[in-house]
């Protein structure tokens, strides 16, 4: 893994981070089409930077921080913006955000016990995909009210399913964290723990 900073994937991830506040403002002021366009651009650049990083061996430590940070902040901005615009209820936003707070706490616990973050579970990836997919679908209905009768049930189905899986994955991460931090007490001679879900 490289420690380089100036790579194409890192630049794309940084640009995605810069788009987050603009995206949030667009949603809040009711510029639904502008917000939708930014969300599409962000999704495309997210896919492209991952492809470039793998194909041209440009995976970096900074990139591994920037990429998920941009994803999380974009989802957070979309959730908050859509809640302020009264498209999403606040209970849904709180449910999703509280799960992310749980993972932050688990990360701190793992770090205090000498471990890095847990590997990303495929369930968590699918949950994020569902949530990420639901947002542009719901925003499409806001930008073009004529299609809202179709986009609203599809978007909400993806959002609710994603939220459920998001917490299911969170419970698995919690269980694995408990297992890992207990390993040194049971196996004092073990140099490191194998993290796997």
From TrEMBL:
One of its GO terms (biological process) is glycerophospholipid biosynthetic process. GO terms for cellular component: membrane. InterPro entries: CDP-alcohol_PTase-I, CDP-OH_P_trans, CDP-OH_PTrfase_TM_dom, CDP_ALCOHOL_P_TRANSF_CS, Phosphatidylglycerol_P_synth. Belongs to the CDP-alcohol phosphatidyltransferase class-I family. The chain crosses the membrane at residues 20-44, 65-84, 153-174. GO terms for molecular function: CDP-diacylglycerol-glycerol-3-phosphate 3-phosphatidyltransferase activity. This is CDP-alcohol phosphatidyltransferase family protein. Pfam families: CDP-OH_P_transf. The keyword Protein biosynthesis does not apply. PROSITE patterns: CDP_ALCOHOL_P_TRANSF.
């Amino acid at each position: 893994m490289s420690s380089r900073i100036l790579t194409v994937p890192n630049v794309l991830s940084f640009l995605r981070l810069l788009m987050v506040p603009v995206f949030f403002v667009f949603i809040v002021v009711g510029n639904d089409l502008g917000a939708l366009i930014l969300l599409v651009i962000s999704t495309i650049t997210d896919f492209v930077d991952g492809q470039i990083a793998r194909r041209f061996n440009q995976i970096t430590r900074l990139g591994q921080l920037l990429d998920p940070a941009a994803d999380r902040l974009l989802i957070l901005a979309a959730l908050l913006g859509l809640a302020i615009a009264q498209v999403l209820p606040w209970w849904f936003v709180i449910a999703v955000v509280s799960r992310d707070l749980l993972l932050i706490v688990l990360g701190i616990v793992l770090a205090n016990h000498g471990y890095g973050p847990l590997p990303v579970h495929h369930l968590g990836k699918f949950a994020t995909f569902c949530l990420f997919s639901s947002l542009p679908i719901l925003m499409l209905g806001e930008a073009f009210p004529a299609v809202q009768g179709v986009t609203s049930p599809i978007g909400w189905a993806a959002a609710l399913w994603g939220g459920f899986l998001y917490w299911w994955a969170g419970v698995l991460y919690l269980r694995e964290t408990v297992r890992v931090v207990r390993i040194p007490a049971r196996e004092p001679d073990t140099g490191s723990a194998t993290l796997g879900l």
